[in-house]
Design a protein that fits this description.
14 strands; 5-stranded antiparallel sheet; 5-stranded mixed sheet; alpha+beta; Phosphatidylinositol Transfer Protein Sec14p
C-alpha cells in the first residue's frame, strides 16, 4: 500500500515516530514546511507537491491513517499502554467452584470482623438485591476483610513489569481510587456492579477494578459517566430481561428463528483461540469474509444481529478464559479479560457497506465491556478503507484507536505478531505454527452445537439469478446422518427445493415450497415491541423466516444414499433473492 493512505509525508512520519530519518536534508525540509510561501529548491526532497502539503498541514495529528506505517501508533502517548509481559497473580484462590463466587465487592450489610485469608475463601458475592444502596457507615468495621485482601492483590509485587494501571504497578493515588471505586459500586445501580464482575470467576477482582479505571485514567467519576453515556445501565437491564443468560442459548433467540450459533459464525467468521504473551485472549475476525446477505437471511435487517455481539462479548470471552486457564500454569500466567484482536479484511464481504448499520449498533453492547481490547491488528486493508476508517473511528474510544495497528499484508505484521503471541498460539494463517482458522472454526462449531449428537454443520448461501440453482454435499455414510435441513430467508417470493441422493442424483425428496406462508418459524411474530425499533415497521425489520425442509426421520432410511452424496436443487426462484441452507450432521450411534 505504500503511502497511499497516509495523510502526512514519509519524512514527517519518521520524525514524529522517532524513526531514523533518511537524511539531514529531509529533516530540514520538514522544518521548512511551516513557511507557507517557502519554495522547494530541492524538489526531489518532497514526496508530495506543495499544494497537497499545504492542505494536509491543516489536518490534525488525530486524522493520520496508520495503515501506511505497517506498525502501531506510539504507545508512549497513551496514559496506560497495553501490557506486554506475562503476569503472575499471587495467592491464587480457587475461583472455579460453583459455590464460590468470591471476593468481588463481597461484603455484608452488617459489620464483618477482620478474618484470615484462609477464612475469606468462604466469602461469596452478594446478589444484586443484597447490595447496600444506603449511605455507608463511618465505622471502621465497614472496611471488611475482603477490602484488606483486595488491597493486598492491588499492591502485590509480581515478576516482570505488568504495565502502568495494573495490579502491582499502581501509584498510591491509583490504589486509593480502586478502593473508592469499589465502595461506590455498592451504592450504585446493580448494573454497574454486574458489569464489573461480568468475567468472574475467570478475572480476579483487582484486575477487574483496574481495567474499568484504566478506561478513564483512574478517575472514578469519569468511569461512572462513561458507563452511563451510552445508556449502558438500561441496555444491561434490558438484556437481562430479554435473556437472563446473555443470549447463551443462541438458537432460542426468537428473532433468529432457531438459528444455532455454529451456523451464524459461518456468515460472520469469528473465533476466540490462543493467548498472547501478556495473558490476553486472541480473537480472530475474518471481516472480509463476513456475508451480509447470509446474516440478513437469519436476522432480518442486519442491525438485528446485536445479540451476537452480546453473546461473544460475554460468553465468548468467558469460554475462552476458561479454556486458557485450563491449559495455563496459574503460577506463571494470569489470563486477562482483554483481547488481542486480529481483523483480516481480505475479501469482499460487504461489511463496510451493507454492514455499516451493524457496526453502528455494536457499541450498544460493547460499551458495557470497557477496556477489553488490548491490541488490534487490521490486516489487508484496501486503499478504500481510509474513507471507511474516518467513519469507524468516530464510533471508538480514543484509547481504543491508539491500540490499532494497520498492516498492508500478513507478512508485514508477522514480526509484531510474534513479539506478542507465541508461535504455537498464533494461527497458521497468520504466520504461526498453530492450527488453521478453518480447523478451529470446525472445533467451535462442534463445541457450540445446538443439540447433543451434532458433530458438524454444512452451510451454503444460494444467490438466485432467475435460473435453477443447486449445490452438492457429502457425509460419511457409515458414521454420519443428516439431522435436519433448514432454510433461512427473508424473500417475499420464495422458491421450491428438492433433495437428490447418490451420485446418480436420484430423487430423494420431491420439491417443497420455501416461503413465508409455510415457514416453520417467522421472526416478525416474536419481534420485540419495547420501543427499541428506531421507528421501523417491525414486519419489515424482522421479515426473516425459516423452513425446515427435511428432518432426521427423512434420512433414517438406510437406502437414503448408499454413497453419502446429496444435492439440493431449486426452482421457481426470483433473481436477487437469497436462501441460506443449514444442514446439521449428527454422528450415528453404534
Amino acid at each position: 500500500m505504500g503511502n497511499l493512505c497516509c495523510k502526512v509525508t514519509a519524512a514527517e512520519m519518521e520524525l514524529k515516530y522517532s524513526l531514523k530519518p533518511k537524511s539531514p536534508k529531509l529533516l530540514s525540509a520538514i522544518s521548512e514546511r511551516s513557511n507557507e510561501n517557502a519554495g522547494s529548491s530541492d524538489g526531489d526532497l518532497w514526496l508530495e507537491d506543495r499544494e497537497t502539503l499545504r492542505n494536509r498541514r491543516l489536518q490534525s495529528e488525530e486524522t493520520i491513517f496508520y495503515d501506511a506505517l505497517d506498525h502501531f501508533p506510539s504507545e508512549g502517548r497513551m496514559s496506560y499502554p497495553p501490557t506486554h509481559s506475562m503476569r503472575r497473580f499471587p495467592s491464587e484462590l480457587n475461583m472455579e467452584m460453583s459455590d464460590s463466587l468470591r471476593l468481588l465487592m463481597s461484603t455484608s450489610k452488617k459489620d464483618i470482623s477482620l478474618k484470615s485469608e484462609s477464612s475469606l475463601k468462604n466469602e461469596t458475592f452478594l446478589s444484586s438485591s443484597e447490595i447496600d444502596t444506603t449511605a455507608p457507615s463511618q465505622k471502621t468495621g465497614d472496611r471488611t476483610a475482603s477490602v484488606v485482601l483486595v488491597s493486598e492483590h492491588l499492591k502485590a509485587e509480581t515478576p516482570g513489569t505488568q504495565g502502568r494501571g495494573y495490579p502491582g504497578e499502581l501509584t498510591p493515588e491509583e490504589f486509593e481510587t480502586c478502593l473508592e471505586f469499589r465502595a461506590e459500586l455498592k451504592k450504585r445501580d446493580s448494573a454497574f456492579y454486574e458489569m464489573v464482575k461480568a468475567m468472574h470467576p475467570y478475572e480476579h477482582e483487582a484486575f477487574a477494578l483496574c481495567r474499568f479505571l484504566r478506561a478513564r485514567d483512574f478517575n472514578k467519576d469519569d468511569v461512572f459517566t462513561m458507563l452511563e453515556e451510552k445508556n449502558q445501565v438500561t441496555n444491561w437491564h434490558n438484556c437481562q430481561k430479554t435473556t437472563p443468560n446473555y443470549y447463551k442459548e443462541f438458537h432460542k433467540i426468537p428473532a433468529f428463528n432457531g438459528c444455532p450459533l455454529p451456523v451464524f459464525i459461518t456468515q460472520l467468521p469469528m473465533i476466540h483461540t490462543g493467548i498472547g504473551k501478556n495473558g490476553a485472549i486472541v480473537v480472530y475476525v475474518q471481516a472480509g469474509k463476513i456475508n451480509c446477505p447470509g446474516i440478513e437471511c437469519i436476522v432480518g435487517d442486519i442491525e438485528n444481529a446485536l445479540p451476537f455481539v452480546w453473546n461473544r462479548l460475554y460468553h465468548g470471552c468467558r469460554d475462552a478464559m476458561a479454556r486458557e486457564k485450563a491449559c495455563s500454569d496459574p503460577a506463571t500466567t494470569t489470563v486477562l479479560a482483554e483481547k488481542i484482536m486480529v481483523a483480516d479484511l481480505k475479501g469482499d464481504g460487504g461489511l463496510f457497506s451493507a454492514g455499516m448499520p451493524f457496526l453502528r449498533a455494536s457499541p450498544t453492547a460493547a460499551a458495557c465491556f470497557p477496556e477489553n481490547v488490548n491490541r488490534t491488528y487490521v490486516l489487508n486493508a484496501p486503499f478504500s478503507f481510509s474513507v471507511i476508517w474516518a467513519v469507524l473511528k468516530q464510533l471508538l474510544e480514543p484509547r481504543t484507536v491508539q491500540k490499532i495497528g494497520f498492516f498492508s499484508t500478513v507478512a508485514k505484521a508477522k514480526k509484531d505478531f510474534l513479539d506478542h503471541i507465541d508461535s504455537e498460539k498464533l494461527l497458521s494463517d497468520y504466520g504461526g505454527t498453530g492450527p488453521s482458522f478453518d480447523d478451529v472454526l470446525k472445533e467451535r462449531q462442534k463445541q457450540y452445537a445446538h443439540k447433543e449428537g451434532i458433530s458438524r454443520y454444512i452451510v451454503e448461501l444460494l444467490s438466485m439469478n432467475g435460473r435453477e440453482q443447486d449445490f452438492s454435499f457429502e457425509i460419511a455414510h457409515e458414521d454420519e446422518q443428516v439431522d435436519s435441513i433448514v432454510v433461512y430467508s427473508r424473500s417475499d417470493n420464495g422458491c421450491e427445493m428438492s433433495v437428490e441422493a447418490g451420485k446418480n442424483n436420484s430423487t430423494f425428496m420431491d420439491y417443497k415450497p420455501v416461503n413465508r406462508s409455510v415457514a416453520t418459524t417467522i421472526a416478525s411474530k416474536d419481534a420485540p415491541t419495547n420501543g427499541n425499533n428506531n421507528g421501523k415497521d417491525i414486519d419489515k425489520a424482522f421479515n426473516n423466516y425459516a423452513v425446515e425442509i427435511a428432518t432426521s426421520d427423512d434420512f433414517a432410511n438406510e437406502n437414503a444414499s448408499s454413497d453419502g452424496a446429496f444435492r439440493i436443487q431449486t426452482k421457481n426462484s426470483t433473481k436477487g433473492d437469497y436462501f441460506l441452507i443449514a444442514i446439521s450432521i449428527a454422528s450415528k450411534t453404534k
